[in-house]
């Protein structure tokens, strides 16, 4: 028994291996079916369902979804002032967070990639990543304490005769900037690290001052990395609705509107949900022009 | 290359659809189906049979505790032992979620607040309840029985469970003189600009309507949940004026407690349990029912029309308002029990006094949450009232 079993087990496996070896197509399709199904069914499929349900309506009393085709939701989306205002505000927040992240991340990444001693660099990268180990909610609630009345922000600014920003839009932007900063630092750090030193030397040899070298050599080579980081910060900020609930005071973003509509008016929530999808597709198209997507 | 073409196509489709949307008609939306409250003719059972061994519940957090959150808080295990009905419960976060879950038909009973109960009755998701089959019902406070949010035309659709008022809470160090009226958060709110708070739900529009009922008699508001377009607009207008003074809206009671402790909020709506907790955690707060009265909630256990475990559901209804359990839930959740005999069973002997359990005069000042529907529930027939779906839209616009 024991002698025959492995032999018997080996033959079908071998036969299968041979079959796969001979048929390249079969091999490939077996390999790719699962991930492609995942992408097509779960990801694109749910996007399609979202989009289709945005054209349905609800019964105004029982709030049941009525499958009657209508473009009223998109009409409301484009004509209601409050929706327009919230959409523009959300895009503004996402842009502000992205710009702030880029401004803060650049010098930091420059330090970790080029100024710090090489043996410290991995440790510094770990230090940048550590905030990602803590729970999102813990970090946001920490910011709620920092920004609350007589909290850390108020206490630190008091000697200068100032007060903290309190809860609201600025607080939301600050907190989101803090949350997504590592996603901006990492690509810039990598780009700066890969920047050949001899290019900088050549620039200096040709008589360029550090400022000129930065503008003419470093910046153009690192810009795609900044754009790559901005894809993260922009899309993550655009979709966030929890941070703004905790530190945003009474501010509403697109996510909050989706959330408040989801129980009573699912089609409207779906229509609102397509807005960030469209915005991000447009943003990705814009970023593709910078070559950022190839350095992701 | 292929990818970019797909993306471009996608963007083009999006733009096309957006333009198509602009030219759409304004029809649809509110159909006439919301109209009169003539619920489907469903029958309540006349006698109970053998228990089915299982019951599925939808409840507010803190209503169905089996000791898994806190080993000392458990009134489900004894129920299971005595009746043989295994309890499965689902905690819902909002009235809207409760309505949605009830529609699945997978649940037998729900602890619905007044802003959900009428919707459930009208859509035929909740069945009438034969109160004779709930022995403890006889001890329920009289002013909770057959109310507009738990009955239709004298037919009971549920068992009252407990009630509470939305209070005006304020920081006693920062708010001086002590407020006696809701004007402190409406007309005089600018005094505490940026530190006023309000409940984050469309039903809060009723609070504004209640204030207008007292201060603007020319609007002739009778019931804050039955507002015609003119009255509704006035309430929305008042809330839009309040908005610049609001620091934050609260949906989560823990957030409200922390805001009052830190001083980010100094005045606004609150619940008795929040006031008690905030005070025990050192916040200098006081709370009251202002002279205009207040809104409040009264929860009702309702049985699903599609229930497959009706006998167990009735056993649960009776269990929940039995004196001991009703007292336990009231104390754990922070609300006045529905059963008069529960007051003898509370561990804090002053509990019923603190929560005004049997204080009929106190509850007369409270306008309990109800579902706004097109047919005015205050009895007017010459006008149409603004349905809840419109309240939700208006609430989004108020917050801006």
UniProtKB/TrEMBL annotation, chain A:
It is a multi-pass membrane protein. Coiled coil: none annotated. InterPro entries: MetI-like, MetI-like_sf. Residues 87-287 form the ABC transmembrane type-1 domain. It comes from the Bacteria. Its main location: membrane. The chain crosses the membrane at residues 30-56, 86-111, 123-142, 162-181, 216-238, 266-286. SUPFAM superfamilies: MetI-like. It is found in: Cell membrane. Keywords: Cell membrane, Membrane, Transmembrane, Transmembrane helix, Transport. Belongs to the binding-protein-dependent transport system permease family. CysTW subfamily. PANTHER family: INNER MEMBRANE ABC TRANSPORTER PERMEASE PROTEIN YDCU-RELATED, INNER MEMBRANE ABC TRANSPORTER PERMEASE PROTEIN YDCU-RELATED-RELATED. This is ABC transporter permease. It comes from Streptomyces macrolidinus.
UniProtKB/TrEMBL annotation, chain B:
It is found in: Periplasm. Keywords: Periplasm, Signal, Transport. Residues 28-48 are annotated as: Disordered. Residues 1-20 form the signal peptide. InterPro entries: SBP, Sperm_putr-bd. CDD domains: PBP2_polyamine_1. Gene3D superfamilies: Periplasmic binding protein-like II. It comes from the Bacteria. Its main location: periplasm. This is ABC transporter substrate-binding protein.
């Amino acid at each position: 028994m024991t002698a025959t079993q492995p032999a018997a087990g080996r033959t079908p496996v071998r036969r299968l291996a041979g079959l796969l070896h001979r048929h390249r197509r079969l091999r490939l399709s077996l390999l790719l079916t699962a991930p492609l199904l995942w992408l097509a069914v779960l990801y694109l499929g749910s996007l399609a369902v979202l989009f289709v349900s945005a054209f349905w309506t609800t019964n105004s009393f029982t709030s049941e979804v009525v499958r009657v085709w209508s473009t009223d939701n998109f009409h409301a989306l484009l004509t209601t002032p409050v929706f327009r205002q919230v959409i523009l505000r959300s895009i503004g927040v996402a842009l502000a967070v992205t710009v702030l992240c880029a401004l803060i991340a650049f010098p930091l990444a420059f330090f970790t990639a080029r100024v710090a001693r090489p043996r410290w660099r991995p440790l510094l990268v770990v230090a940048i990543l550590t905030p990602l180990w803590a729970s999102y909610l813990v970090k946001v609630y920490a910011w709620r304490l920092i920004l609350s009345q007589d909290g850390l922000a108020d206490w630190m600014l008091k000697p200068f005769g100032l007060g903290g920003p309190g809860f609201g839009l600025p607080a939301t932007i600050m907190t989101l900037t803090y949350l997504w900063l590592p996603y901006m630092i990492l690509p810039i750090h990598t780009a700066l690290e890969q920047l050949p030193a001899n290019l900088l030397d050549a620039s200096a040899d040709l008589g360029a001052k550090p400022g000129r070298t930065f503008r003419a050599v470093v910046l153009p080579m690192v810009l795609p990395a900044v754009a790559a980081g901005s894809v993260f910060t922009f899309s993550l900020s655009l979709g966030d609705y929890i941070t703004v609930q905790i530190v945003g005071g009474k501010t509403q973003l697109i996510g909050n509107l989706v959330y408040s509509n989801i129980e009573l008016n699912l089609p409207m929530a779906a229509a609102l949900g397509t807005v960030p999808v469209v915005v991000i597709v447009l943003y990705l198209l814009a970023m593709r022009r910078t070559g950022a997507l190839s350095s992701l | 290359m292929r990818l970019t073409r797909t993306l471009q196509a996608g963007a083009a489709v999006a733009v096309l659809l957006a333009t198509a949307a602009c030219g759409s008609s304004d029809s649809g939306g509110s159909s006439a189906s919301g109209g009169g409250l003539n619920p489907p003719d469903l029958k309540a059972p006349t006698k109970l049979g053998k228990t089915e061994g299982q019951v599925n519940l939808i409840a507010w957090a803190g209503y169905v505790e089996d000791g898994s959150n806190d080993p000392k808080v458990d009134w489900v295990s004894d129920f299971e032992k005595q009746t043989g009905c295994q309890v499965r419960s689902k905690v819902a976060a909002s009235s809207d979620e409760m309505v949605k879950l009830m529609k699945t038909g997978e649940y037998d009973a729900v602890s619905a607040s007044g802003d959900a109960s009428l919707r459930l009755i009208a859509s035929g998701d909740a069945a009438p309840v034969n109160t004779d089959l709930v022995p403890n019902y006889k001890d329920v406070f009289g002013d909770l029985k057959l109310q507009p949010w738990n009955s239709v035309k004298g037919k009971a659709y549920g068992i009252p469970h407990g009630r509470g008022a939305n209070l005006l809470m304020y920081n006693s160090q920062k708010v001086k003189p002590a407020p006696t009226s809701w004007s402190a958060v409406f007309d005089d709110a600018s005094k505490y600009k940026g530190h006023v708070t309000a409940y984050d739900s469309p039903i809060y529009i009723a609070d504004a309507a209640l204030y207008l009922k007292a201060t603007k008699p020319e609007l002739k508001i009778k019931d804050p949940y039955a507002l015609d377009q003119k009255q509704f607009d006035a309430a929305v207008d008042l809330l839009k004026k309040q908005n610049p003074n609001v620091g934050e809206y609260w949906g989560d009671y823990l957030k409200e407690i922390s805001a009052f402790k830190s001083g980010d909020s100094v005045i606004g709506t609150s619940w008795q349990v929040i006031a008690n907790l905030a005070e025990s955690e050192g916040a200098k707060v006081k709370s009251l029912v202002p002279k205009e009265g207040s809104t409040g909630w009264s929860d009702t256990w309702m049985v699903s029309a599609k229930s497959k475990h009706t006998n167990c559901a009735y056993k649960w209804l009776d269990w929940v308002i039995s004196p001991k359990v009703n007292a336990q839930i009231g104390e754990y959740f922070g609300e006045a029990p529905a059963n008069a005999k529960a007051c003898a069973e509370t561990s804090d002997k002053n509990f019923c006094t603190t929560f005004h359990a049997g204080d009929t005069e106190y509850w007369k000042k409270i306008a309990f949450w109800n579902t706004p529907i097109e047919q005015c529930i205050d009895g007017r027939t010459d006008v149409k009232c603004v349905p809840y779906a419109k309240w939700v839209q208006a609430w989004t616009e108020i917050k801006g």
